[in-house]
Amino acid sequence: MALQVDNDRLQGLISGERFSVIYRLQGNETEASMQARDICLEQTVEFPEELVPDGVIRNKILGRIENMEAWDEASFKVEISYAVETSALELTQLLNVIFGNISIKPGIRVEEINLPQSLLSCFKGPRFGRDGLRQLLKVAKRPLLFTALKPMGLSASELAELAYQFALGGIDIIKDDHGLTDQLFAPFEERVILCTQAVQRANQATGHHAIYVPNVTASYHNLLKRARFAKQAGAGGFLIAPGLTGLDAIRTLADDDALALPLFSHPAFQGSYVMGTSGIAHYALYGQIMRLAGADAVIYPNFGGRFSFSREECTRIAQGTSVPMGPIRQIFPSPGGGMSVESIPEMIKVYDNDVIFLIGGGLFKQGPDLVENCRYFRALVEKYYT
Amino acid sequence: MALQVDNDRLQGLISGERFSVIYRLQGNETEASMQARDICLEQTVEFPEELVPDGVIRNKILGRIENMEAWDEASFKVEISYAVETSALELTQLLNVIFGNISIKPGIRVEEINLPQSLLSCFKGPRFGRDGLRQLLKVAKRPLLFTALKPMGLSASELAELAYQFALGGIDIIKDDHGLTDQLFAPFEERVILCTQAVQRANQATGHHAIYVPNVTASYHNLLKRARFAKQAGAGGFLIAPGLTGLDAIRTLADDDALALPLFSHPAFQGSYVMGTSGIAHYALYGQIMRLAGADAVIYPNFGGRFSFSREECTRIAQGTSVPMGPIRQIFPSPGGGMSVESIPEMIKVYDNDVIFLIGGGLFKQGPDLVENCRYFRALVEKYYT
Predict the structure, then answer these.
(1) Which helix H or strand E contains B149, and what residues bound it?
(2) Inter-chain contacts counted by CB atoms under 8 A, chains A and B
(3) Are both A313 and A218 inside the same structural domain?
(4) pTM over 0.95
């Protein structure tokens, strides 16, 4: 059957501005071509090709193949563009056009997104970014130092004592481990109050500006409730795992003028996107998308630790955090996951100074005195940037 | 360094109740054993093994390997249990313990989750479930009929005209295509009002009880705002893609007594979890987890359509929607994605009557008259269950 479409009306609503996505498609040229045409349909009209109404829907709403070239012997690099209006100028729907239904099809990976100024200007991005976070922490040049309160099972006061020692030893950012939420053994509100006070007490002793960053990853309503409580209590930022909360939760916290604290995104429950030849490439996910969502720093597992990211993938993430994106600020890559102070020299080679070094369990292993271990970590980093 | 832990205090906060996860781990026995031990640490204390404090943290908080056996020649089936308290009784943190950090490690797949009564009772699950949805739609026995309004680009009134024809033809559930959000060409509020009215008008003509289900997948704040608007306007359910909003958004809508409408989960932006040997198995993700979150029906791509799920994977999903889960209601599997009326006989063999058949574009292809196409679809299904 033929659909009735008011083409004149629709034409008046389409600006002509388009955003594009670079996909890597597995297969030979014929397969990749078919896959690319399928993506154009699947991500927009989701309709049998022969029934797509001629006129504006076929010419403008339907995705469009802009470019196609061999990636290697087994895959193709294909750029597909979409009308800006298909995104409804909302992060959730933008992500849906980029990779919604096709996430369920094998052999398609989002490599890069290219958004025009008109679309970028719909997003505020990170409130602080690299420069803002440096100003907040009063660290002009060197890499920032980051650690996590753990293990799960400690009480709020036991965690606060650790927070105090970390801050006393010169760590800049002290976050909850991402598994600490509101467990009975260290309830959120008690933990936030005690850890905030502990870090403030250490700051008074050191003259530093360390911040405590509680984990606000939580159920839909509790997320905002906890963030507001933490702000009120004097916390210095928020940790959030968007794989659990949805990516728009980052944007919501970042855009909230009553919160106005730096955001650290955690990769938990999100690894499946970067595991194979399907999914979203490290550069696009941890670089571009986290940044668009409004994270000021993106945590991910570094090469050489207990996870599987390669040195090249980590380098690509760092590139994604800094590539020009219109008004969207540059953010910090924050590699972690089984790092130790011994990893520092190699990490500086890859990341130089605009990086946040996240060392968790490794700081405990260094020696018997936690404060001394932190001082050693800091001295090692400062040695490179004096 | 050694951590100070108040073991007596902690012991008093741990009930001894545990939930467990069955993982499939790629590798030989030695590799799988190491991987399993690593999961026990990674998903709880996230701490170097040698530094985990003896006592309650090591004995109770740490994950515990309960069982391990060969899955096949290349993988092992490993059951790991966790203290119920590690989940903080919140869906987000429960998912984090099940598959947070290890989502970033290759070769680990969540196959099944087993929650004790004490944990299940923290979740209300689906408000309607199979029985409730059948009562609402007044369909006692046969499979339910489901379709989608599309393509993107139609105006709200053009979509409403389609909704009218679908309802007139006897479709039970008429949803927005998951790509329709709040685009200029069919704004959410206008679309909801017109489509709701159109379906009501058709119901008056047919005496049926069809419902219109708008897509409320949206940014954090707009999600609830749109759901409330739709409820007010008389919509009959909500479509939501938890890959975009986070899984807890389903629970939030399901638990909201002021909304009280059936929820249909859509798999967009979530396919990466089921793409390979890492991730979450179909049974656990589309069956158990969606149900725990509160979806009354779970949409997923059927075998034989334009996606890649196998017949066995789809069967497993259906099993997950009905397996005993304490007080959590059974829900409907809703296979779709390139289905046509020709697929019905084969689908009935697999799903029998407790299924929702989702046919979108296929209904348009059947013949020149959309209402007749719907009637044909309905007659075909009714033929099996009279």
Answers:
(1) strand B144-149
(2) 343
(3) yes
(4) yes
